[in-house]
Amino acid sequence: xxxxxxxxxxxxxxxxxxxxxxxxxxxxxxxxxxxxxxxxxxxxxxxxxxxxxxxxxxxxxxxxxxxxxxxxxxxxxxxxxxxxxxxxxxxxxxxxxxxxxxxxxxxxxxxxx
Length: 113
Prior knowledge:
single chain, mainly alpha, elongated
């Protein structure tokens, strides 16, 4: 859990070293996205705007929405930071959604939950 909390804190404080930042430190390093889309690898791009990442989150939301029979918006506040979904009143469903996104982030980063 510590690693996930640290990731959230790093995201909020823009402390990730992205390809764009690496390139500013050393011009011989590429500034392009690690996912191979040929865009500049800024923090917002790597975490949300990259087509590969966007596709991943769309799939997660689609599956979770169909399992829970609720509409979850494609929103970085929900997916990356764990904010509550506005249109869902049930605390249990909110907790399930939060746990699901935490589980996805753990699995994706290689952390055992």
